[in-house]
Amino acid sequence: MTDDWRPTATLETLRERARLLAGVRAFFAARGVLEVETPVLGHGGSTEVHLASLSAEATTPAGRERLWLQTSPEFAMKRLLAAGSGPIFQLARSFRDGEVGRRHNLEFTLLEWYRPGLGLEALIEESAALVSSVLGREPGDETRPLRRRRYRELFREHLAIDPFSAPLAELRRLAGEVGGLGMADSDRDDCLDLLMSLAIEPRLGRDGLEVVVDYPASQAALARHHRDPEDGEWVASRFELYLEGLELANGYDELTDAAEQAARFEQDNTARRAMGLPEVDVDVRLLAALEHGMPEGSGVALGLDRLIQLALGKSSVAEVMAFATPHC
Amino acid sequence: MANYSTNEFKGGLKVMLDGDPCSIVENELVKPGKGQAFNRVKLRNLMTGRVLEHTFKSGDSLEAADVVELEMEYLYTDGDMWYFMKTDGSFEQYAVDKKALGDTEKWLKEQVPYTVTLWNDNVINVTPPNFIELEVVETDPGLKGDTAQGGTKPATLSSGAVVRVPLFINEGEVLKVDTRSGEYVSRA
Fold first, then answer.
1. Which of A16, A48, B32, B122 gives the lowest tally of CB atoms within 10 Å of its CB?
2. Alpha-carbon distance B171 to nearest alpha carbon in chain A (angstroms)
3. Residue A52 contacts B, CB cutoff 8 Å
4. What domains does chain A contain, in order, with CATH numbers?
5. B37 closest CA partner among A73, A305, A245, A96
6. Residues in domain Aminoacyl-transfer RNA synthetases class-II family profile (chain A) (predicted)?
């Protein structure tokens, strides 16, 4: 007799989870943000090289076709924005192949929302307010104020290196040393990601919510870019929220350029071919929507399971899910 | 031997790392949203017993280690080597050197089953049962009527181990001892 039919979360946790979800919906209702639901299966998928998509064979009026399980609801939500939806949010079940662990589950809930006409600063404030409300704290709690850190400043502080100007050889050496593995053929962003994940992230958000801004432009091709006031280096209009060493949310001042988006899809699939990875069908309807015109604005995706994990003081996402992947 | 990819790593899996057999203790996926995935893995080196942490790119693989754990009874020692026999009825014997035996040397008793770890059919580790019953061969005389009082004294057991025992224990008595902590549990 095995016990693995049982939920990975306690029933008490599931009740708490339901209460927190109701709180999220109330938060957005009070701010006039519309809840939407978009398809989990789409004709296009994410082409991102480091995201592995799952797909399914389906019979539709078009015959047998391959549909992609969405890695985030981004594309469909942007089509709604282009259609004039105004501000929208979604509690979206998302799927990423191979991502199972203490902080990951094959399918998970992204809380994603878009704010046409709103700048990145205002969205950072709103994201912090949402996190505080789920954690049961007052926004702007004076004892744990939102701390703002620049990407470059973090690397200087924790690793004594400038992530923008350090030579690639130096980044590879440091990443190899920190990770204890060969990074000799890794590119800049892979080295920076490893250093961020292993040496910096675990220390972030230990004293309340921390927001990291001014990422290298290469790490957010679809965010707007602006020049760093210090030295004129291009940085991305992107932010990430961290709490208790966990990456919680990723926000962008969204690029609305259809040609740029199309080029990025093509670039990704070229890189996929070169790496021997399967190509992913491009969301041509997103491109058409951008061509039509999407309002300027910002958007953010937040890992809701992780936030609930922190709110309830659990040590893994499995403990806040009815049936985590190993028991699904 | 087969290879295991990082996504197959789980607690207890035996793999080769830098020429030594290791047992995976913990495997944690580290992945920035859209960045490359890594696995932060804790492994116990089965030769040294040390736990080390190692990072792998997700999808990397390690060769499987031919490691098996078997139950064997202790037979005897000739002074250089210690001899154990499989309990599966095959009567197959294995010689164990001092290095592989390690601290288990002081918990040896004939006909008791031990967990023996083999790598490529060589013994690399011997683990005693959690509890073992051994005779006291040397201790100060017992104090009658002192059973309720605290206080302990050292006692040497037939296997050579020295443990702290209550004052009322006498030579010749058989004791139950916890081999993990080296502590007296009760009279057997």
1. B122
2. 47
3. no
4. 11-140+253-320 (3.30.930.10)
5. A96
6. 17-326
